[in-house]
Amino acid sequence: MYTPYTMSTRGRLSRERILEDALRIVDSEGLQGLTIRRLAQELDVTPMAVYRHFKNKTDILDGLIELVIAEGQATEHDTEGWQAWIEVTFLRMRASLLQHPGVLPLLGSSASYGLQSLRITERLLGKLRGAGLGADAVARGLHLLVSYTLGAVAIEVAAREQQQSAEAGTQQEWQRQLRQRFESADIAEFPNLVALAPKLSRFVEEAEFGLGVRQIIRSLTPEA
Amino acid sequence: MYTPYTMSTRGRLSRERILEDALRIVDSEGLQGLTIRRLAQELDVTPMAVYRHFKNKTDILDGLIELVIAEGQATEHDTEGWQAWIEVTFLRMRASLLQHPGVLPLLGSSASYGLQSLRITERLLGKLRGAGLGADAVARGLHLLVSYTLGAVAIEVAAREQQQSAEAGTQQEWQRQLRQRFESADIAEFPNLVALAPKLSRFVEEAEFGLGVRQIIRSLTPEA
DNA sequence: ACCTGAACACCGTTCAAGT
DNA sequence: ACCTGAACACCGTTCAAGT
What does pTM read for this prediction? Predict the structure, then answer.
């Protein structure tokens, strides 16, 4: 029997395909653009079809985080030297999160204990222990690096959004607007912010993030 | 003319009173519990009355962040010594965010350029410059400390939620469940995670957070 | 100036039914 | 087994009206 509908180019539904479409929607329209109904429309299907593969919307959101983390392949490289390896790994982590800024708010909620996250953590712990660090230094080192990366990306995304909504195309224009805001404030006095604004606004660049990671790595090994 | 309704014990509407009620709802029911309709009900008012004071829901959410930051009074202390002062400031920041975990997802979105945030930043910059650090060290130091704090709190909140939803009352019970999950995983091999689990799960405590902050502070001053 | 009421265009999710 | 259709109890927000 020939059934043209089930043979359509879009193929059949699956967790994978649903998550891919969901991520595309989040990338182009933000997290709030992702609704079950909108997603179903993208999949050429009724909203309820999605519930055959995910138990609810939270389930989809948890899957999205895992997808982004897996896609990033943060630990899939063989950089020489454990310190350089760690640095590259976190640079990749940052890059993959920045590619999907919409999922960031999800990290602060409840997931990140998925299989993909655990795998990356396992590999990082292995590298740090292999470098000869003690158990305490390893644990604190991981915590410092992961926390710094999550926070830095969150700040970077927020800064980019501000910059966009302020219609400040260039960095110079954005700095000019920031300075203006500082100076016209109620208290009218943010001398340090004004003086350091150029340095502070540099932290939306990969190079500066890398310096931060390196500084943390350096602080893990008592020089001797 | 006596008009009992406007003299009610709840008083009149204002931005302040709306934000206070909104924060109470977020604290007790989470961010998704905060709806305009629910908020209006709490205020004994029609949903539309809220729109007289806030242009939309985003406006309310931005206000919430500022309220939490202001309430925290992170810089309102006079601890002796710049390093101790910085440490206390970030410990306070962590504490106030943990008191209102519901607002955390908002930090990763778009605000944090409000007046309260800028004031805290200004004071931190002043302290760091006063300690004799160069402009680059000050900028990177602030970035490291703020990023670390945001990330660490996000992880801490996620961990607490996981712990709660797993109905793991005690730390021991939680560790037992985690270990079980590692060992029953598909790949079945997370040796480092299993070995270090006790150390890793300690990072939901103030003392460990403080150690992280101190390590960053130490890395700012080239020992000499 | 400040609040109300009714309406519009959406949500996530349940349930019973189709093939 | 997998998908549909209709319905339920909600959303944020606009608009015109009341006092």
Answer: 0.91
